[in-house]
Design brief:
alpha+beta; 201 residues
């Protein structure tokens, strides 16, 4: 009987077989590296690690950066043509806010879920460039645009305003002399109030 068992053991096929052992504590939805044990004739040898799945493209980082570039240039080439979005760039500030949100979410998942998404190095770089773009936009809109140069030929306080002729909202020429001489309620006006404001016509 003992000889028969030894003969059966010797006749066991000497082929390689692979047993996959995976942890039961793996979180769902996250690919984990699989440990493979190579065995030869029933004897386990050194384990072998299977390659980890390739990480996904973190598109939120690029979306936030490109949206900040769009927010910067769209004001000068498009939104500056309309009074509603020219005098205060609220649309562009809203685009910058969305860009910051995209970058924040992209950087967060690049660091917290680094096994799934890329962007640990690229994310902070794009975020820094976005901060520079927003700083340049804020400087141009709220600081540089208010520093108007002084004019030597501008009338002083208390001086008489020079006569001029400009177009009104109906594309009709209106002069200062005409405003001072045209009767209002049957009498000549005592004066004309001029209001200057920042804008384009």
């Amino acid at each position: 009987m003992l000889a028969e068992k030894c003969a059966l053991h010797r006749r066991a096929p000497a082929t390689q077989e692979t047993r996959r052992i995976s942890s039961q504590r793996q979180p769902q939805g996250i690919p984990q590296p699989t440990v493979q044990f190579e065995s030869f004739a029933g004897v386990d040898i050194l384990p072998k690690m299977t390659p980890v799945a390739e990480r996904r493209w973190n598109w939120l980082l690029w979306a936030g950066f490109l949206l900040s570039v769009l927010a910067f240039f769209s004001y000068f080439f498009f939104f500056a043509q309309f009074p509603l979005t020219r005098n205060f760039p609220w649309v562009n500030l809203l685009l910058f806010a969305f860009a910051a949100g995209f970058l924040a979410v992209g950087i967060r998942r690049a660091f917290r879920r680094s096994e799934l998404y890329r962007g640990k190095v690229l994310g902070p770089i794009l975020a820094g460039l976005t901060v520079l773009i927003f700083g340049a936009f804020a400087f141009l809109m709220f600081i540089f645009a208010r520093q108007l140069p002084s004019s030597s030929g501008a009338p002083r306080a208390g001086a008489k305003a020079p006569d001029f002729t400009l177009m009104d909202t109906g594309s009709k020429p209106v002069s200062l002399t005409e405003l001072l001489t045209a009767p209002v309620h049957g009498a000549a006006p005592k004066g004309v109030m001029l209001v200057f404001y920042r804008g384009y016509w």
